[in-house]
Structure to design on (178 residues):
């Protein structure tokens, strides 16, 4: 990721210039302690994802009233904001009581949920998952679920010898209120 951030011609700066992502930098005093880049996304869900969401009665109850449930689940894809890049300085990742990364994920979710320009139901992320480093545990701690659609693709890739370096995950961020 370091190379991608510092590559001015083909890296993060290029994504921002092309308006594929918006960059947010978090300062504490004059020191950069975190940054993240966000973009709009669409999440595809399958029947396994539906079962996962409906298994949590509170989540299921907030999505759609019983008479609208079928119409809600007939959608092909759902509006989301993708966390393209997310980094917190090492010192702040170690703090158990005041975990900056967890706080930022919650803040991103709140801001996306209250976007007046467009509806957003989910946060999505392609969580890095390599033998050297995995962000999956962090995102699971922040209540992200594995996307079953993406998990099927991931399993297919592994079966044919290609180990993807990310896992697609999502988090429900806004209940629909009636």
């Amino acid at each position: 990721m370091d190379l991608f951030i510092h590559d001015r011609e083909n890296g993060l700066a290029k994504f921002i210039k092309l308006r594929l992502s918006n960059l947010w930098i978090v300062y504490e005093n004059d020191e950069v302690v975190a940054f993240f880049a966000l973009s709009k996304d669409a999440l595809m869900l399958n029947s396994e994802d539906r079962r996962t969401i409906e298994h949590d009665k509170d989540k299921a109850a907030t999505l759609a009233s019983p008479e609208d449930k079928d119409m809600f689940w007939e959608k092909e894809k759902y509006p989301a904001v993708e966390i393209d890049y997310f980094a917190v300085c090492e010192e702040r990742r170690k703090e158990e009581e005041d975990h900056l990364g967890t706080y930022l994920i919650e803040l991103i979710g709140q801001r996306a949920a209250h976007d007046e320009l467009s509806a957003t139901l989910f946060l999505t992320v392609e969580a890095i998952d390599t033998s050297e480093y995995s962000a999956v545990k962090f995102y699971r701690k922040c209540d992200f679920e594995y996307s079953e659609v993406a998990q099927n693709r991931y399993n297919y890739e592994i079966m044919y010898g290609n180990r993807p370096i990310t896992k697609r995950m999502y988090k429900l961020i806004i209940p629909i209120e009636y």
User: Anything to note?
Assistant: Residues 100-113 form the longest helix (14 residues).
